[in-house]
Specification:
With 188 residues, this protein is mainly alpha-helical. It contains 8 helices and 4 strands. The protein has one domain.
């Protein structure tokens, strides 16, 4: 059976970003994961974490993780500490802390390179700065807001562009088809 380790990669990506960036609360963390997944998709045709992102008012949000942060699963709760606010209207910054060490064994060299690059680029950025960057014109969040509207799923294919390291849509579709064939072969 084909094992992808998306959950392990998600949790370890969170740990990595918490340890390697400053001022990392939920908003910044969500944007870091978004950049990680969309940059990796542009190069490979797949995300690292398996998350889907939605075009919310303040930028791309992984809705399932957003919801899980309110009631963390056992593996997430063992890995990070998320201070809970008693007042849901309190918008003050809450920094998330790690409980475990980062484990790179589930990642490819490319995934680690992108993880490191994203952390380096946004190391000292505040949530407002990274949020502003995710709202740039003609980027996936902006294109989704303009074509589908708020709260809609952001298509990973919107990460594809004409840059040297970006796959074409045809290459991505071919890789997706190949992956489905491999899954069927291993699950048969």
């Amino acid at each position: 059976m084909l094992v992808e380790h998306s959950r392990e990669k998600l949790i370890n990506s969170i740990i990595y970003f918490l340890k390697n960036t400053n001022n990392c609360g939920k908003t910044k963390l969500f944007k870091l994961l978004y950049y990680l997944d969309f940059m990796h998709f542009r190069e490979t045709g797949r995300s690292i974490t398996g998350l889907n992102y939605y075009a919310w008012d303040f930028g791309p949000v992984p809705k399932s993780l957003f919801n899980e942060m309110e009631n963390p699963s056992a593996d997430l709760e063992k890995s990070i500490f998320i201070p809970q606010k008693t007042d849901k209207n309190d918008k003050s910054f809450v920094e998330i802390k790690t409980k475990k060490k980062f484990d790179d064994k589930y990642f490819t060299k490319r995934e680690l390179r992108i993880l490191e690059n994203v952390a380096f680029i946004f190391k000292d950025a505040k949530a407002e700065d990274i949020m502003e960057a995710s709202h740039l014109p003609n980027q996936p969040w902006d294109m989704t807001i303009r074509t589908k509207g708020e709260k809609e799923k952001i298509a990973y294919e919107l990460a594809l562009d004409s840059s040297e390291n970006s796959l074409s849509l045809e290459e991505v579709l071919e890789r997706i088809r190949d992956k489905e064939i491999i899954k069927k072969a291993f699950n048969a």
